[in-house]
Design a protein that fits this description.
Length: about 375
């Protein structure tokens, strides 16, 4: 048995290569303090994401890893707190928003909005404070996906600001909330960017760990301009395994690189389909493309979601899978995605230093 000192505990923690964060506890600077007393060791960890469903398991696993390495009797205490992005200038009504995450896709219809809303709910289910902005001017779908009645409008405050609409605890705002039901939104480029920026900045988001922005599909001028005007912690690109979608996702990655927005990773949606009759699983849209793309851009493949009719039916019914069937394997896939997103944001925030100089582009 080892002599138990703070130094020996730290050394062993450094040697335990495995942590669920992809780097050791030492590399992640996750050790808050180590108290050595008569009755044992108390190890306090600070973790930069919320992970309510996993923290007890993590504490027990780490305690038994330490025991195996010669340090028995360690009680692990996990303190979860999402850190604020140094890339975000926290001003105005965004001052208490710690992280803004853009969810984009090169190609339309790959499931960007479905992934955004389930991701937001999964982050929240794990204990984070979350908001979602539906910025998809071409096809806003948040109202339907969250089952928010058409008559519900955001409350106007001081004639200038709006309160987000709460559903399932999530603070939500959509371009569609601000227009009459049947009025088509014919927004041209610069007008759309200005309107979206205003909607983002004039919403009373309050205190949030993450604000998810569901971007319009594509990688056009609106995206570049919006990406330049809004300081974000990072971006996620959603794709299907289909070659055409992967080619367009590559354009999304290029776009974020061009405007110096850190890419947190790629989500592969509709990756596999299991036949509800015989259980046979097949890769309807091909396979390997998203992993290959992630490897070639040295970003993470954050998660893989199956093509499953329950995912479609749940958002159509206004009750996304994470709230409709929280214990299901599908919901667990979104929770796993939320953990990976949380880990990447934590890592990105540790790497980042200050907000970059933003070049304001006024015309498109
Ligand atoms: N993993 C999935 N399994 C089954 N159906 C899905 C899945 N993901 C999304 N869908 C369905 O695919 C359709 C398109 O999804 P969604 O609207 O989220 O895509 P999008 O990329 O946001 O589209 P747009 O380009 O219009 O913004 C919807 O009917 C949705 O319910």
């Amino acid at each position: 048995m080892l002599e138990v000192t703070e130094a020996s505990v730290r050394r062993v923690l450094g040697e335990i290569g495995y942590s669920p964060f992809g780097s050791s506890y030492i590399e992640m600077e996750a050790i808050e303090s180590i108290n050595i007393g008569e009755s044992g060791v108390d190890l306090y960890l600070k973790v930069g994401l919320q992970m309510q469903s996993k923290s007890n398991l993590l504490a027990m696993t780490l305690s038994s890893e330490l025991e195996k390495a010669g340090i028995p009797g360690v009680t692990v205490h996990i303190n979860c707190e999402v850190f604020a992005s140094p890339l975000i200038s926290r001003q105005g009504h965004l001052k208490d928003v710690k992280n803004i995450v853009m969810v984009a896709s090169g190609k339309g219809g790959v499931g960007k909005s479905t992934t955004s809303v389930n991701l937001a709910l999964a982050l929240q289910a794990e204990g984070a404070k979350v908001g979602i902005l539906d910025a998809d001017i071409y096809g806003p779908s948040l109202r339907t996906m969250l089952g928010i009645d058409n008559h519900i409008k955001p409350e106007l405050v001081d004639q200038k600001y709006v309160s987000p609409v709460r559903k399932y605890g999530l603070k939500s705002m959509s371009v569609a909330f601000m227009s009459e039901d049947k009025t088509p939104m014919i927004w041209r480029g610069p007008m759309a960017v200005r309107a979206l920026q205003q909607l983002l900045e004039n919403t009373l988001w309050g205190d949030l760990d993450y604000l998810i922005i569901d971007m319009p599909p594509g990688t056009g001028d609106i995206h570049i301009s919006l990406a330049q005007k809004v300081n974000v912690s990072g971006a996620i690109v959603v794709t299907t395994p289909q070659e055409m979608a992967v080619i367009d996702a590559r354009k999304g990655l290029e776009m974020f690189n061009k405007v110096s927005i850190p890419v947190l990773g790629i989500v592969e949606n509709m990756a596999t389909h299991r036949c509800s009759n015989c259980g046979f699983e097949e890769t309807v849209f091909g396979s390997g493309g998203a992993q290959h793309l992630a490897d070639s851009y040295q970003v993470q493949l954050l998660g893989t979601l199956p093509l499953d009719k329950r995912i479609r039916a749940d958002v159509d019914a206004g009750s996304p899978t994470v709230v409709e069937s929280p214990g299901s394997t599908l919901a667990q896939s979104y929770i796993a995605l939320a953990h990976q997103v949380g880990i990447e944001i934590w890592k990105t925030n540790r790497r980042g230093t200050a907000a970059p100089e933003i070049q304001i582009v006024d015309s498109l």
